Amino acid sequence: MVIWKYLPQKNCGECGEKTCSAFSLLLKGKKKRLEECTPLFNEDEYADKRKQLKELLAPAIREVEIGVGARACKIGGEEVMHRHELTFFNRVALVYDVWDTMDEAGLRERVRRITNWKKFYIGDFLRVDAIAVRSVAEDARTFAECVKMTAEETDLPLVLCSFDSEMLEEGLMVVADSNPLLYAADKTNWKSVLRLAMDYNVPVTISSSDLDTLSSLAATFSSAGVKDIVLNPEPGTNSRDDEFALADTFSKLIRIRRAGIVDENKVVAYPLMSMSIPRTAREAGLEEVNAGEGGNALDASYREAIHATMSTIKYADIMILHSIEPHSLIAVRTLAANIYTDPRRPINVASGLRELGTPTEDSPLFLTVNFALTYYTVESDINSNKIDSYLLVVDTDGMGVEAAVAGGQLTAEAIKAAIESCSVGDKVKHKTIVIPGLAARLSGEIEDVTGWNVLVGPRDSGMIPGWMDNNWPPEVETDL
Ligand code: SF4
């Protein structure tokens, strides 16, 4: 009702909902965007309400956008400490580094590898989010050249990394239009970095191992008008001790996020950055970053995966990482994908009729549900056994077969509606549908309601090939 009061209350339906109150509910759950109420946005008389509602709906943690175009990424925007209380909204951004002492061929190759990396996972491709360009040579021209070559090879957002504002400005002059994130302002350089953030209107990271300093710098930047801030709580003075750095970072990330959400302390209600590479090592150059002190590259990548895992769970919104080896990258990226799924909605796929292989009118017609894990398992089992067939995917709100039968999402009526809406009768001439073994108890009802012949398939789609040997094609009934 609080949200509804600010809406035009026209019930005009332009937002896709029949009433403003229905739209209010969806706004609250972040299932609709304010911009979808076109009268509110287009008509001057609502200007005040629009502004007030924007403030009312602003997330507890500010949302910050980095980059431009299709691969721009949003970080922060969170409302809760724990995913089960609502959901998390913007997945932690994974940023992988390049540095300005790399030779050109190596640099371009690494940028392309990071940009093009992808891994198929539950119907979608996992990718990484941005590239951090680190200044190691401490030469402004060298850094700018590195930024330029990186930008030529990627459409990913960039993070410009240096504690020297001159370096940052040289980099900014190359890619300011791409909305890069600056890393970082600290207590020594904050005035000059604040000027850069204001002049170029780009987001900026504030970094300190002391939380009071971090908070004080954030307040200064905010009061100067810079709102797109990322906070990087560095580990304390023992940061070369891995165990200490991990525990210290863990504690700081939790304390800041709790202050932002539970205590509603707006001064620190910004996205958080976690960096696996201790500042001292970063400043010392690549070799130490790769190997760690007294270690080797493999050890370093293991340590990084542990750090990234911890930071993904609590509460990093963006991480700058180094190891792009599959054993590290796949593990970290997969965890991030899972932590940031919406617990209110099972992962689902579109319903409808799929053609697997090159089916004909004599090919089998299988039925499944739109729960992503079920769908991709069934699809993969059928495809890998090269069974030309149709697969009818019924919308069960993302529920698996057993739960959907019990919960009433998979019913004879729903199957009838799916058969009719997909014109399945025009595709096959046998009028036989193969249902999952877990839905066996619906078979009689499906036959009554749809008029189709039902065959009960195996409970496990991995057994479809053996089942086919004994059951397909179906016996034709005759009138002898
Ligand atoms: S577009 Fe706005 S005014 Fe129209 S029904 Fe939706 S919320 Fe109400």
Short description:
The chain has 19 helices and 17 strands. With 480 residues, it is of the alpha/beta class.
How would you describe the overall organization of this protein?
The protein is α/β, with parallel strands linked by helices. It folds into 3 domains: 2-57, Orthogonal Bundle (3-methyladenine DNA Glycosylase II, Chain A, domain 3), CATH 1.10.15; 63-339, TIM Barrel, CATH 3.20.20; 352-471, Rossmann fold. The chain is 42% helix and 16% strand. The protein contains 19 helices and 17 strands. The protein has helices spanning 2-6, 20-28, 38-42, 47-57, 104-116, 140-153, 165-175, 190-200, 211-223, 242-261, 279-284, 286-291, 297-313, 326-339, 372-384, 401-407, 412-421, 443-450, 464-471, and strands spanning 63-66, 73-76, 93-99, 119-121, 124-126, 130-134, 158-161, 181-185, 204-208, 229-233, 273-275, 318-321, 352-356, 365-369, 389-394, 432-435, 453-456. Strands 10-9-8-7-6-3-12-11 form an 8-stranded parallel β-sheet. Strands 13-15-14 form a 3-stranded mixed β-sheet, sandwiched between helices. Helix 10 packs parallel to helix 13, helix 13 (297-313) packs parallel to helix 14 and helix 17 crosses helix 18. The protein is globular, with a radius of gyration of 27 Å. The mean pLDDT is 91. Iron/sulfur cluster (SF4) is lined by residues 7-8, 10-15, 17, 20, 23, 37-40.
The counted number of beta strands is: 17
Q: Beta-strand level of the residues, as a percent range?
A: 15-25%
The CATH topology of the largest domain? TIM Barrel
Q: What's the arrangement of strands in the largest beta sheet?
A: 10-9-8-7-6-3-12-11
By DSSP (H or I, 4+ residues per run), the number of helices equals 19
* N→C terminal distance: 69 Å
**What's the rounded overall pLDDT mean?**
91
| Ligand types | iron/sulfur cluster
Overall number of structural domains = 3
Label the CATH architecture of the largest domain. Alpha-Beta Barrel
**Which radius of gyration do the C-alpha atoms yield?**
27 Å
CATH superfamily of the largest domain: Dihydropteroate synthase-like
Structural class: alpha/beta
The level of helicity is: 40-55%
What general outline do the C-alpha atoms trace?
Answer: globular
Low-confidence stretches: none
